[in-house]
Amino acid sequence: MEIVYTPWRLPYVQAKPTDGCVFCAAQKAPPSFENLVVYSDENLLIMLNRFPYTNGHMLVVPRPHVSSLTGLEESHRCASVRALTLCEVLLRDLFRAHGVNVGLNLGQAAGAGIIDHLHWHILPRWIGDTNFCTVVSELRVIPEDLKATYDRLAGGFAGKTI
Ligand SMILES: [Zn+2]
Q1: Residues 76-81: what's their mean pLDDT?
Q2: Has this prediction a pTM greater than 0.90?
Q3: Distance from chain centroid for Cα 76
Q4: CA–centroid distance, residue 24 to ligand 1 (Å)
Q5: CATH T-level assignment (fold) for domain 7-157
Q6: pLDDT level of residue 21 (50, 70, 90 thresholds)
Q7: What does the mean pLDDT of the chain come to?
Q8: Lowest mean pLDDT among 11-20, 24-33, 55-64
Q9: How many A from CA of 136 to the centre of ligand 1?
Q10: Is residue 76 annotated as part of the catalytic site, yes or no?
């Protein structure tokens, strides 16, 4: 059996549960690697997923703490689609993505991990990226650590407005 070490995940595994909403908490400080926010404006945040499916897995998080699209103002819905568009551009440019998955899980039955504060997932895909480790052993191998991904995307968002 092959052993794969992922020491960068230890702080996440050992972290105490956060009181309250992690997305609301992330709004209280400027973008940084600590809160994983790579972009913020008056409507939304874009942040890295702390537990990514692959490199470049981002979350587009409208600022209001609501669980449904119906709870968002029109301006937040429009800004979210503009944000997803910029994310797609950066994933294709910076990660050479062949394709992009975009998803919104509303409610526990739909697979939402954080139910009360809606957020879009957007992640790059490459032809042939289905990894046998994930299929046979529930092990996910991610070739770039989170800090390097953060630096790459933060640089990509620098100077951009949504
Ligand atoms: Zn929230």
Answers
A1: 97
A2: no
A3: 18
A4: 4
A5: HIT family, subunit A (3.30.428)
A6: very high
A7: 88
A8: 11-20
A9: 35
A10: no
